[in-house]
Amino acid sequence: MNTNKRKDGHGTSPNKKFKTERISRPSLQLDSNSSLTFQQLELDHYINKAPYPNMPGAQTGSVPVMRMFGVTAEGYSVCCHVHGFSPYFYVLLPSDFTDVLEFKKKLNFAVLLDVKAVPEKVSEAVLAVEIKRGKSLLEFSGHEDSKFAKITVALPRFVAVGKRLLENGVYGNKSFSCFETNVDIDLRFMIDTSILGCSWIHLPPGKWYGRGKDSKWPITSRCQIECDVSWEDFVAHPPEGEWAKVAPFRIHSFDIECAGRKGIFPEPNVDPVIQIANVVKLYGSDDVLTRNVFTLNTCAPIGHAEVRCFDTEHQMLEAWADFVRELDPDVFTGYNINNFDIPYLLDRAKHLKLKKFDFLGRILSIQSSVKETVNQTKFGKRTFKTVNFEGRVAYDMLVVMKRDFRLRSYTLNNVSNELLGEQKEDVHYSIITDLQNGDEQTRRRLAVYCIKDADLPLRLLDHVKSFANDIEMARVTGVSITSLLTKGEQVKVVAQLLRHSRQSGYFMPTHHYAPSTEQYEGATVIEPIRGYYTYPIATLDFSSLYPSIMIAHNLCYTTLVRPNMKDKLGLAPDEITVTPSQNIFVKSSVRQGLLPEILQQLLAARKRAKTALKDEKDPVMQAVLNGRQLALKISANSVYGFTGAQVGKLPCLEISGSVTAYGRSMIEQTRAEVERHYSIANGYENDAQVIYGDTDSVMVNFKVKTLESAMELGREAAELISQKFVKPIKLEFEKVYYPYLLINKKRYAGLYFTNPSKYDKMDCKGIETVRRDNCTLVVDVINTCLQKLLIHRDPEGAIAYAKQVISDLLQNNIDISQLVITKELTKADYAAKQAHVELSKKMTKRDPGNAPKLGDRIPYVIIAAAKNTPAFQKAEDPIYVLENNIPIDATYYLENQLSKPLVRIFQPVLGDNAESILLRGEHTRTKTVVTSRVGALSAFTKKKDTCLGCRSVLTDNCNGAALCMHCKPKESSLYQQELSHHRLLEDRFAALFTECQRCMGSLHEEILCTSRDCPIFYIRKKVQMELQTSDKRINRFGENLIEEC
Q1: Which of 121, 413, 885, 1015 is the most buried (most CB within 10 A)?
Q2: Most confident residue range from 83-97, 110-124, 417-431, 1026-1040
Q3: Would you tell me the crossing angle of helices 1015-1035 and 971-1000 to the nearest 10 degrees?
Q4: CA Rg, the chain, in Å?
Q5: If you write DSSP's letter for every residue of 97-133 in order, what string do you get?
Q6: What's the domain range around 841?
Q7: To 10 degrees, what angle do helices 653-677 and 619-644 make?
Q8: How far apart are CA 693 and CA 527, in angstroms?
Q9: Residue 842's beta-bridge partner residues?
């Protein structure tokens, strides 16, 4: 069978002929009598009008067909149509139920009557009703199996219809309890065929049928291999051993630039796309497959990329779409491509009436389109845009960064700086049009910027190993990689629960959500004994505490006993466990719980992955194994959260409440055991004291002076106390803090030692070093003070440093970049007025094109204003403040930003006098306030010059001169002082300019960067303004003196 890659016609550059051989997938000849093995990346289903011949399932009418997309080990793309799988659900039947045929007949008639208006032609809605024996997943009700009906229907939409009809009494006026009706067909298919996310699929010889030019069934995809197989005739390999490898997926990162209008954010129905940069690489490869830029109009050559020039936007967009189809990527990536780049391209192509452009997926007949969905998140309602690319995964790195990292700002520039240690030139959208309208050199500069924006997301993807980790998470949890990005956390636990339920004969009930005020008590926190400890503090941690509790005490849906059922079931006291929250569960000797079984497998698999990771030498496999052990850890910890989520698939507060109750009792028991055993009465030098405990860890002061002694006692205590708990609950010695600053509950810092020879890091929890809603001045000051307290052990030096910073703040000597506060715009309207929200409204009025959007983090500073002016009215854009010399409200920063964090960390050192020592005294008595160029009074005031020597106001006859009559004799020396100051400013500006040139990558072009996440940008702007002021001061001395010097 000839399955050569099908090619769409593509345009060519009017300026240069370019090659496409390198980006095309290799052609192949494949015989359908041989086997076929590929790694599936994406899975979906569609409704076919007629069944494929000689396949199981419905033999007439419309049928669902599963579709798997993937890549072989050689890099060939595959589209596999899987036939014969039908959706189904379960209902609980009365024990005396027997008439299956009558039940099927009535239900089939009712469903057909209910769905007669649907477009699909179906002659039989209910395909089969089978009696199954099993148990409800929820609650222990004895050992006898109940009677269930497995109802198989023709189409996925009939599941919900059947559920509704059966609950409403369609058969015998009885309401039936339904099970697993909320499981979609894609997940059901993966569970029933043992397919895990991104697993390898094997089609045996003679069991699959290739599609080609001569086949009866038409080619529907752009994949090199398109085939059909029965759902019963393929093998899904578990991702172990040789099947743990990852196929060479093609990852295509791209970025677009638009020519917007002044003050208006680009709109696809008006503003053209002028450049599209592309960077493509294979998964696991260090080399880039291709790097190019499509540009409107001419563009000078770029050394590290191919330039493709076009005369019209129409030509450029069509050529780019052809490039995508020729490349046939498996994964699209970029930065904010979901909400900007992809929708803009599609909307722009629609405006230009490009008929073929939006066929960007792998199915020939399906157009890609934008859908807006409103999701409820913990921050409120958010609008998300999604685009269908059948067979391709849209992997937006902005979504990944927000999911996996807590950063002050999520701009590409800031993320790259935080994670890669490098920045990029940030060209403001308002000057992009000017660069485009210039010459080929200005367009080249824009193209270099565009390529960088396409290159960085790929580098971030490689650096944080996010795609590798998500592949392993998909394998561990058994869901598709797209589900991980779009369906939240609960689907991962549901998939695992359903797989194990199927094997053990349990059926998961469909949960009906009802608002509830019932809550359970969370984890305990031992009241901290606050202080600055110069003794080593040993930390004892429970290993996988909540999963271990669930395993040890057999806490599960399947083992839960309702209070009124204990006597009815005849359970003896030694057969049940009464938890500290007074809930009842049967012991594993009566029934092994399903959740403990899942958790045991996850923890054992993690142990195996960590062992294999130590011995692995291949960097690609190291990333795979590390991603797997992380995925297993996250999955194990998420099981407890799943049971406590009231708005969830199957909440059970009896389980989550019991887990936290056990956790609380174990923390208290650990404290009691430590303080009882490690005492002078038992022969130890000192009485040990537990100074703090939180969730799964206990901090112990053994009152020994050396790290070695603290570590030895910590290991001994962990081993001793672990024996008091039910296995596998285990207390481990992990680290020693020395010294240790305990501020309050969930607020502490210390030097983290796992080896007595050298500390690992300075560890901070709940302190402003890790909070994002403070200005960077707070973070820097607290960090430096902690370093002086913990690393240098110099409390006096820390106090002196804090006082100096406060003095500099009050005298306007702190750079504005350190005073910028950022907060996320989570909703348009708040109950109370917020500073960042009010500023966003001001910015929208000044420049609608640069208006912040929901989800953006808005930078602002607090400016000086009249007394009692609320803070939300004093928020201002940092650039606007710099340009107009607006004074900063130093008192606000001292009282609302700096004072509380400083007092908190110094209180354990200075006691109750911390506030008066730090915030009052000689260092707070000198203040400097600059004069604003804007404001209500500025229009009615006239500025008078002052003498540059003695700073006295000049008389009218001397106005404009440099000096007053008294300072005139010292004119030469004062002029030299001004010149010297000017040279210092020039040197500083030159150093900043050089740093910006290095970041930009050119020494010969003007700097256009306007990155608000870069401190150098603010400093450069300020020094630039100081230079202008200095220049004016020098010019006041007059031309004669300047010429003489």
Answers
A1: 413
A2: 83-97
A3: 150
A4: 34
A5: ---HHHHHHHHHHHHHHHTTTSSS--S-SEEEEEEEE
A6: 774-780+787-924
A7: 110
A8: 7
A9: none
Distance from C-alpha of 327 to C-alpha of 288, rounded to nearest angstrom: 13
Per-residue pLDDT at 20 exceeds 50: no
What is the rounded distance in angstroms from the CA atom of residue 155 to the CA atom of residue 65? 10
Report the Cα 33 to chain-centroid distance in Å.
Answer: 45
Q: Are residues 364 and 223 in the same domain?
A: no
Q: Same structural domain for residues 968 and 910?
A: no
User: What's CA 463's distance to the chain center, in Å?
Assistant: 15
Using CA atoms, how far apart are residues 884 and 300, in angstroms rounded to an integer? Answer: 39
On whether residue 696 sits in a domain, the answer given is yes
Q: How far is CA 470 from CA 466, 480, 612, 814, in A?
A: 6, 10, 19, 43
In a domain, 954, yes or no: yes
Domain count across the chain: 5
866 and 955 in a single domain? The answer is no
| Count, residues in the chain | 1045
Give the start-end residues of each E strand in 565-665.
576-578, 584-586
Q: What is the pLDDT of residues 240-299, one digit of tens each?
A: 889 999 999 999 999 999 998 776 778 899 999 999 999 999 998 888 999 999 999 999
With beta carbons less than 8 A apart as the criterion, state whether 887 and 864 touch: yes
Distance CA 901, CA 749 (A): 13
> What pLDDT score does 174 carry?
87
Rounded Cα distance, 505 and 134, in Å: 5
pLDDT in tens, 435-459: 899 999 989 989 998 999 999 999 9
| ∠ Cα 17 20 24 (to 5°) | 170
Show the tokens assigned to 258.
């638009």
pTM equals 0.82
For tokens 């890669």, what's the residue? 420
Q: Are residues 760 and 661 in the same domain?
A: yes
At residue 117 the predicted structure's pLDDT band, cuts being 50, 70 and 90, is low
Reduced to 3 states (helix: H, G, I; strand: E, B; else coil), residue 726 is: coil
